[in-house]
Prior knowledge:
The complex is a heterodimer of chains A (about 300) and B (about 260). With about 300 residues, chain A is mainly α. Chain A has helices at about 1-10, 15-30, 35-50, 55, 90-125, 130-145, 145-155, 160-190, 190-200, 205-240, 250-260, 265-295. In chain A, helix 6 (about 130-145) packs across helix 8 and helix 10 packs antiparallel against helix 12. In chain B, helix 6 (about 175-190) links the parallel strand 7 (about 160-165) and strand 8. Chain B contains nine helices and ten strands. Chain B is globular and about 50 Å long.
Amino acid sequence: xxxxxxxxxxxxxxxxxxxxxxxxxxxxxxxxxxxxxxxxxxxxxxxxxxxxxxxxxxxxxxxxxxxxxxxxxxxxxxxxxxxxxxxxxxxxxxxxxxxxxxxxxxxxxxxxxxxxxxxxxxxxxxxxxxxxxxxxxxxxxxxxxxxxxxxxxxxxxxxxxxxxxxxxxxxxxxxxxxxxxxxxxxxxxxxxxxxxxxxxxxxxxxxxxxxxxxxxxxxxxxxxxxxxxxxxxxxxxxxxxxxxxxxxxxxxxxxxxxxxxxxxxxxxxxxxxxxxxxxxxxxxxxxxxxxxxxxxxxxxx
Amino acid sequence: xxxxxxxxxxxxxxxxxxxxxxxxxxxxxxxxxxxxxxxxxxxxxxxxxxxxxxxxxxxxxxxxxxxxxxxxxxxxxxxxxxxxxxxxxxxxxxxxxxxxxxxxxxxxxxxxxxxxxxxxxxxxxxxxxxxxxxxxxxxxxxxxxxxxxxxxxxxxxxxxxxxxxxxxxxxxxxxxxxxxxxxxxxxxxxxxxxxxxxxxxxxxxxxxxxxxxxxxxxxxxxxxxxxxxxxxxxxxxxxxxxxxxxxxxxxxxxxxxx
Lengths: 301, 258
C-alpha cells in the first residue's frame, strides 16, 4: 500500500501511465477532503450498485400485479414502501427504475457534452463567420425552454425511452457549447497554442489535443450539475406520458400514476419523488466537489 | 549570403476602426549563423517583427525572405522545420495539461518523425535537464526549467533559425544568465541563426553580433557589437538606451544579482 502510494506520488514518473495515474491520484486526494462531494459520490455509487444488482435485490417483480394487495401503506410486511394501485411493490419498482434513470443519464452524458464540446471549440477556435453561424444556432436552441423543446421533439418522434433521450440530448447541448466556446476563446490566443501552430499542427489536431483538454474540466462540472436537471426532465416527460411508456417502472411515470391518490395514499407518488430528490442531490453535491477539484482557477496550482 | 531578408516590412493592426502601424518600413538582413538583436522600449514593434515572420501578424507591406525564398501564407510545414520561436513567458508557452514528454514529442508526431523516445531524452540533456523530468507537468518545474523545455521544444525539428522573443525577461537575474549561456552554447553547437528581441541592452550585448534599435515601429539605428561596446552610437535615442543599462554592460557576463 505504501509502495503504491509512493509510486503514485513520485515527482519523477518513469512512464506516461505513471504520470497520468499520479495526477488522478492527486485529484482523488483533493476530492476526498471534501465531505459533501464524498456524500454525493456515495449516493451516485449506491445508484450504480442498485442499478447493477436490481434483479437480485428487488424483493418482488416490478411488473407483477396483485389486485388483492393494492395501495397498501409503507411498512406492510413484504412491501416495505407499500404498493401502488395495481398492487405492485413500490420498492421493487424504484430499484428497477434506477436502471432506467441511469440508462437515460448515461446516454445523455455521452451525447450532449460531446456535441456541445465539438460545436463550442470549433466556433471559438475558428471565429469569424463559423463562430457567428454556430453561435446563432446555439442561441435558437437556448431561446426555447428546455422542457417545451423536449416535449415538441418527443411529440414529433413519438414516445419511448430512446426518443426521450434523443430529445433531452438535443436540448441539453447548447450550454456546453457556450462553456466550451468561452474557454476556447481564452485559450486560443495563448502562447502554447501559438507554439504548436508554429510546429505545423493542423486545426483538428490543435482542437482535439490542445484546446479540448482545457475545456474538459468546466464541461465535466457542468455535466454533473446538469444530471439532476436531466433526471427531472426525463421524469417530467414520463409524468406527461411522453417518455418511458407504462408499465415500465420509471420514476416520473410512477409519480404520474400516484397523483390520483396523492391525498389518501400519499406514498404512491412520494416514494419515487424521494428517489428523484436523493439522486439529484447526489449529482449536485458531486458536481460541486468536482468544481473545487478540477477548476484550475479555484485551486492553487 | 544572408539567410533572413526583411524588406520594407510594414504591419498594420486594425483596432476599433483605427489603423495602428506597429512596424513601419523596417528592413534588415541576418546572415547564416549570425545573431541579430532587436532593441527598443515596449511598443516599439520589435516582437511584432518576429510574429510577422511567423505569420502571426497582419503584414500590409514589404517582403520577408528566408534563404532567398519569399515565405508562403499560411506558412506551412516546411517553414516550421526551418524557423522556430521561443516565447517570452515560460509560464504561458507550455501546455499546462501536457507532460514535458508530450510537449516535446508533439512536433515529431506532427511531422511523422521516428525515434521519439531517444530524441526526447536527447533534447532534455541538450538543454541541461535531467531525463527524469520527462514525465513531469509544467507546474512541477521552475521558470528557468520551463524555459529550457521551451527551448528544447523549439529545437526538436532541428531548425536553422531561432526567433527569441525576450527569452529571459520573465526570469530572475541568475537564471537569466544560465539560459543566455545555454542559448549561446546551442548556437555554437548546432550552427543556429538567432533573431533576438529584448528591451535590455545588456542581454543583447551578451548575445548579438549586430543590433537594430527601434522606436515607434521605425528603425532608429543599426549598430555593430564593437560600436555598442565602445558607446559609438550616432542617435540620441540609442545613446539614452545605452546609458540606461551601461553599468550592467561593462562586465562581460551579467551579474548573478542586481
